């Protein structure tokens, strides 16, 4: 019996028992459903073993939306607990776990897969490639992310969630103060999905550097591809730092090493530094692709080419360099001294300059344009003023002397949500609406989409702007309650109301997908938005080989030129196309990673070692495997092209 | 698959070129990984708690043996790649075999060194310094161990399937990896051992 006690939840509550039942029922439902409709083979052949960047992108998208609701449930619980003074909905421990998982899920398991979804879906199409450079590795990246996310998500029903904040500062995250296995989950689940992220980084950089369509120079790449490229360079340089920090955190907790301990020479601040050397660039890994999406959308719906292309690229390069030079601003109050703090204040404020350049470029793109107020464009227009407010409060926080007042208050919470929600979340939803027809063959309903936008925008303002005020008044973040005498009650109630509106907004997205699936027309053609870049030049739905003939490019808007200036994109005869084979190994190997991770979390050494051997066997098999792929013949291409409505 | 005969065998297909570029980018990530480990080591090297200091622990003899063995292996794998470009399969296999044997020798001495540390009371848990030292050395040693398996697999494949573009590509990438481990070792030798013994 003692053996099984470690899997119990340290602080059980009815909500958690209800979740256990719900998880069990959903799992059984999925298994029964798949068996009843005889879909196991379909699932395995078409999805679990796929190496097609489009299908992998769709799986990233679904996972991200799922995790959005998981993290959103945490958010609602937090706002409900804080809505009134001295509420009893959650106890302190439960609240700690919820704000921790909310942060981790939203950053690592929602925002990251969302940007990876768009990178996978869009980048190969925008540069006119048939797939990414390493399709098999791409599948492995996805499954590692997926199983990392699953490992993290079972924590709250098996053994307990991490409770030391998403930053997981030591010594709080050490064994002395975080006694449950929760922080083990944090260290290992993020490690597993982090390996996947690093591999995506390598894959995308190689793809963008080597697989562009004939004629496409670097400075002719669409802006989203540029942003993806720079974000992936940041990934390759930032994620290894996290890898090392997580290894050290894991060995501190499991093997009693002394990296971040308070005795035997350990240095707890080393964790904070390593974490943010990764963590701040991570912010730009998320926001740069979002900027890229906004650039595409604003240019399309203003019917103008992007203003200041070169300055857009230059500003992203500068942001990526500066992103590695600002990490200390996350802990100005933790004793570096005035000189260090001043230097990091200046580098932090410097980032607002290239960001400001981008804002003006978007405004000038819209200037004198014929603006169409579609849903993606509404998000983009809403983004600009809201994000500027987030940026301005960021400059306030960057002043290290003033930061002593803001640090660890709700003001900070308001600031970074103000940057992330209009910056990243709005971009993801704009991108979702914009690219939906390309991959699913029908448009999302504009009317419902607009109500989603307004619910989210108004909800966002109501939820987060009051926190600026309560934060300046001294309401601390990560406190599970406050007394009535503080007077924080009414504004927190407003926040709760705003959070409710946002939740409603997210529900309308699901409703929109369902409604549009039922009612939207399917004859939308391949270019429903009258767009400008290559991803719209091929058929909808996109054939497995993307382009029957390689597009010929001679400008940054080759597709627009082909529509307006008679530039001929597709020339020559069809040729046989070489495609990579599907493989089950990435899925199996990642599943073994899951087993290894779970065993490490609970220090079950025998299964851990067996699983690690399994991982190495998978790698060995891959080394010996001969995989020549297969060929699509010319007749087959002609047939597919005809079926999709005309040769391209 | 199109083979471009104007290129060396390891670069002769599109996929081969992608693989090599991808691996260079991976090595960029590896540089960051070891840079972080070195940062941790430099930060924690003076924080020995009640445990031994670097000067108490390091001995020059095994470290010099490790250094010479590993540097030599980097030279022999270079010869192996040269032989491969000349199309001399047996010479290539011989040089790869010597490289792996030298790698094995390096690993043996490193294991001896770790046992020595254990006997003088410096374990993984003793202090922040020993934790950082053994993680840095251990990560490098784990890379060498993985390389031994990887290199063996490549030798088997070359024997079984000959000098195909795929095998040449794998062998070339493996040589990049092996040289990289040597570069890391030079940093370990200079800034961990020599600095620690001063």
Shape of chain A: globular
**Topology order of chain B in helix (H) and strand (E) letters:** HHHHHH
Given as residue ranges, the uncertain stretches of chain A (5+ residues, pLDDT < 50) are: none
Portion of residues in beta strands of chain B equals under 5%
Most extensive interface: A-B, 44 and 41 residues
In DSSP terms, counting alpha (H) and pi (I) runs of 4 or more, how many helices of chain B? 6
Spatial separation of the terminal alpha carbons of chain B = 56 Å
Q: What's the average pLDDT of chain A?
A: 94
Helical fraction of chain A equals 55-70%
Strand content of chain A: under 5%
The CATH class of chain B turns out to be Mainly Alpha
Query: What count of structural domains of chain B?
Result: 1
What's the count of strands of chain A?
2
Question: Could you characterize the architecture of this molecule?
Answer:
The complex is a heterodimer of chains A (648) and B (198). Chain A is mostly helical and 648 residues long. Chain A has a domain at 374-524. In chain A, 67% of the residues lie in helices and 1% in strands. Chain A has 20 helices and 2 strands. In chain A, strands 1-2 form a two-stranded antiparallel ribbon. In chain A, helix 5 (92-126) runs parallel beside helix 14 (410-440), helix 6 packs antiparallel against helix 7 and helix 12 packs antiparallel against helix 14 (410-440). The termini of chain A are far apart. Chain B has 198 residues and is mainly alpha-helical. Chain B has one domain (9-197): Up-down Bundle (Four Helix Bundle (Hemerythrin (Met), subunit A)), CATH 1.20.120. Chain B is elongated and about 65 Å long. The mean pLDDT of chain B is 94. The chains are: A mainly alpha (648), B mainly alpha (198). At the A-B interface, helix 7, helix 8, helix 9 and helix 19 of A face helix 1 and helix 5 of B.
Q: Which secondary structure elements does this structure contain, and how are they paired or packed?
A:
The complex is a heterodimer of chains A (648) and B (198).
Chain A: H1 2-5, H2 14-36, H3 40-48, H4 53-82, H5 92-126, H6 135-153, H7 182-210, H8 223-254, H9 268-301, H10 309-322, H11 338-366, H12 375-398, H13 400-406, H14 410-440, H15 446-472, H16 489-519, H17 558-564, E1 577-579, H18 585-601, H19 605-624, E2 630-632, H20 634-643
Antiparallel strand pairs in A: 1-2
Helix pairs in contact in A: 4-5, 4-6, 4-16, 5-6, 5-7, 5-9, 5-14, 6-7, 6-18, 7-8, 7-18, 8-9, 8-10, 9-11, 9-12, 9-14, 10-11, 11-12, 12-14, 12-15, 14-15, 15-16, 18-19
Chain B: H1 14-44, H2 54-57, H3 60-85, H4 89-119, H5 128-161, H6 165-197
Helix pairs in contact in B: 1-5, 1-6, 3-4, 3-6, 4-5, 5-6
Protein name (chain A): Quinol oxidase subunit 1
Pfam families (chain A): COX1
GO molecular function, one term (chain A): cytochrome-c oxidase activity
């Amino acid at each position: 019996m003692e053996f099984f006690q470690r899997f119990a939840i340290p602080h059980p509550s009815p909500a958690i028992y209800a979740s256990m039942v719900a998880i069990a029922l959903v799992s059984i439902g999925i298994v029964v459903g798949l068996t009843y409709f005889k879909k196991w083979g379909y699932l395995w052949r078409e999805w679990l073993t796929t190496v097609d960047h489009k299908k992998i992108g769709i799986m990233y998208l679904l996972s991200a939306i799922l995790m959005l609701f998981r993290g959103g449930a945490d958010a609602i619980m937090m706002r409900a607990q804080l809505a009134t003074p001295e509420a009893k909905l959650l106890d302190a421990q439960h609240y700690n776990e919820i704000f921790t998982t909310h942060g981790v899920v939203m950053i690592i398991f929602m925002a990251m897969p969302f940007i990876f979804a768009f990178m996978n879906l869009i980048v190969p199409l925008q540069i006119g490639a048939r797939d990414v450079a390493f399709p098999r590795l791409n599948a492995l990246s996805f499954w590692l992310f997926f199983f990392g996310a699953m490992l993290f998500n079972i924590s709250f029903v098996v053994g307990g969630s991490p409770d030391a904040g998403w930053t997981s500062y030591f010594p709080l995250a050490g064994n002395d103060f975080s006694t449950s296995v929760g922080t083990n989950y944090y260290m290992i689940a993020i490690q597993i999905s982090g390996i996947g992220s690093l591999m995506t980084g390598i894959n995308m950089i190689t793809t963008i550097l080597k697989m562009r369509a004939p004629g496409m120079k670097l400075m002719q790449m669409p802006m989203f591809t540029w942003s993806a490229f720079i974000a992936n360079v940041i990934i390759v340089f930032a994620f290894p730092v996290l890898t090392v920090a997580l290894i050290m955190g894991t060995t501190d907790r499991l093997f009693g090493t002394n990296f971040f301990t308070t005795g035997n020479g350990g240095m707890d601040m080393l964790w904070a530094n390593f974490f943010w050397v990764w963590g701040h660039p991570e912010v730009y890994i998320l926001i740069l692709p979002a900027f890229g999406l906004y650039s595409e959308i604003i240019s399309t719906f203003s019917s103008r080419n992007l203003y200041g292309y070169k300055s857009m690229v230059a500003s992203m390069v500068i942001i990526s360099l500066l992103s590695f030079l600002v990490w200390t601003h996350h802990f100005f109050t933790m004793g570096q001294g005035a000189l260090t703090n001043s230097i990091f204040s200046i580098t932090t404020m410097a980032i607002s300059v290239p960001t400001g350049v981008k804002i003006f470029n978007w405004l000038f793109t819209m200037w004198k344009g014929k603006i169409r107020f579609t849903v993606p464009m509404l998000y983009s227009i809403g983004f600009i003023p809201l994000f500027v407010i987030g940026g301005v409060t960021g400059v306030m926080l960057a002043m290290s002397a003033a930061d002593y007042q803001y640090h660890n208050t709700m003001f900070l919470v308001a600031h970074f949500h103000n940057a992330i929600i209009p910056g990243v979340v709005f971009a993801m939803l704009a991108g979702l609406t914009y690219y939906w027809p390309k991959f699913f063959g029908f448009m999302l309903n504009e009317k419902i989409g607009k109500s989603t936008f307004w619910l989210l925008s108004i909800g966002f303002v109501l939820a987060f702007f009051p926190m600026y005020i309560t934060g300046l008044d001294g309401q601390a973040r990560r406190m599970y309650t406050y007394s009535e005498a503080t007077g924080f009650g009414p504004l927190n109630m407003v926040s709760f109301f705003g959070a409710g509106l946002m939740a409603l907004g997210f529900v309308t997205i699901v409703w929109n997908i369902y409604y549009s699936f039922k009612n939207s027309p399917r004859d939308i053609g391949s270019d429903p938005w009258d767009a400008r870049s290559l991803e719209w030049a091929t058929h909808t739905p996109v054939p497995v080989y993307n382009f029957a003939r390689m597009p010929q490019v001679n400008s940054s808007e080759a597709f627009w030129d082909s529509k307006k200036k008679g530039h001929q994109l597709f020339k020559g005869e069809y040729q046989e196309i070489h495609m990579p084979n599907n493989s089950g190994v990435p899925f199996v190997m990642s599943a073994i990673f899951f087993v290894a991770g779970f065993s490490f979390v609970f220090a079950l050494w025998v299964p851990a070692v067996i699983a690690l051997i399994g991982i190495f066997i998978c790698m060995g098999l891959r080394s010996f495997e001969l995989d020549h792929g297969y060929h699509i013949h010319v007749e087959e291409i002609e047939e597919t092209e005809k079926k999709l409505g005309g040769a391209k | 698959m199109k083979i471009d005969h104007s290129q060396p065998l390891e670069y002769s297909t599109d996929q081969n070129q992608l693989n090599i570029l991808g691996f260079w980018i991976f090595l960029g990530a590896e540089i960051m990984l070891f840079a972080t480990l070195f940062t941790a080591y430099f930060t924690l090297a003076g924080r020995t708690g009640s445990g031994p200091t670097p000067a108490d622990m390091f001995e020059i003899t095994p470290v010099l043996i490790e250094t010479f063995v590993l540097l030599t292996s980097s030279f022999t794998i270079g010869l192996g790649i040269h032989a491969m470009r000349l199309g001399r399969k047996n010479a290539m296999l011989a040089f790869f075999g010597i490289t792996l044997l030298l790698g094995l020798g390096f690993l043996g001495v490193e294991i001896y060194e770790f046992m020595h540390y254990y006997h003088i009371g410096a374990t993984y848990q003793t202090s922040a310094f020993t934790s950082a030292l053994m993680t840095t050395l251990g990560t490098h040693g784990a890379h060498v161990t993985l390389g031994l398996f990887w290199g063996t697999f490549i030798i088997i494949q070359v024997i079984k399937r000959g000098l195909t573009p795929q095998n040449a590509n794998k062998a070339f990438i493996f040589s990049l990896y092996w040289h990289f481990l040597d570069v890391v070792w030079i940093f370990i030798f200079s800034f961990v051992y020599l600095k620690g013994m001063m």
